[in-house]
Amino acid sequence: MTAPRSSARRLYSDDHGWMAVDPFGSPAQTPSRVGVTPTALDGAVDILGVDLPSVRTVLTAGQACGTIRTSAGSVTVYAPASGMVTIVNPVVHETPSIVLADPLGAGWLFAVLAPAATSLDELTTREPTGAVRVGS
Fold first, then answer.
1. 32-36 and 83-88 beta bridge pairing
2. Of 50, 57, 88, 96, which is the most buried if we count CB atoms within 10 A?
3. What Rg do the C-alpha atoms of the chain give, in angstroms?
4. Cα–Cα distance measured from residue 70 to residue 114, given in angstroms and rounded to the nearest whole number
5. Is residue 83 within 8 Å of 115, Cβ to Cβ?
């Protein structure tokens, strides 16, 4: 399965997260989908489960906000930007393996509505290449 073509601009965090920002709106007006990079899931053969923030949870950029339990250990999900969770992808709870099969598409985790003053300067347009933090 591959990621569908979209007009959203994908930005990446150093913690191997991504945020799909609508290039025609602002993160304060349109919720941005959030997920993890394929690199974050390296070594995983299967996704055993996910723990994600609930709707209306207020996130702070860079702080842990969820866990993906894989066959290779746990991957911590970090908020790529501050904001409020507006939706959690129901497919991820029903079929967690979609995160591994399509991490940049259908395996998105949740959407965030960022405050108008939120800066996305810490995010880049390139996927990080550094080491991934994996717990056991």
1. unpaired
2. 50
3. 14
4. 29
5. yes
pTM above 0.90, yes or no: no
Residues contacting 109, CB < 8 A, separation 6+: 33, 34, 35, 36, 50, 52, 66, 77, 88, 89, 92, 99
What the block records as the tokens of 15 is 């913690």
Residue whose structure tokens are 């959407």 = 111
pLDDT digits (tens, 9 = 90+) for 95-121: 999 999 999 999 999 999 887 655 555
Alpha helices of 1-136 — where are they, by DSSP H? 90-94, 98-101
Neighbours of 95 (CB within 10 A): 13
| Tokens at 53, concatenated | 């923030």
Inter-CA distances, 71 with 41, 47, 49, 63, 130, Å: 10, 6, 10, 24, 21
Tokens of 32: 């941005």
pLDDT band at 94, cuts 50/70/90? Answer: very high
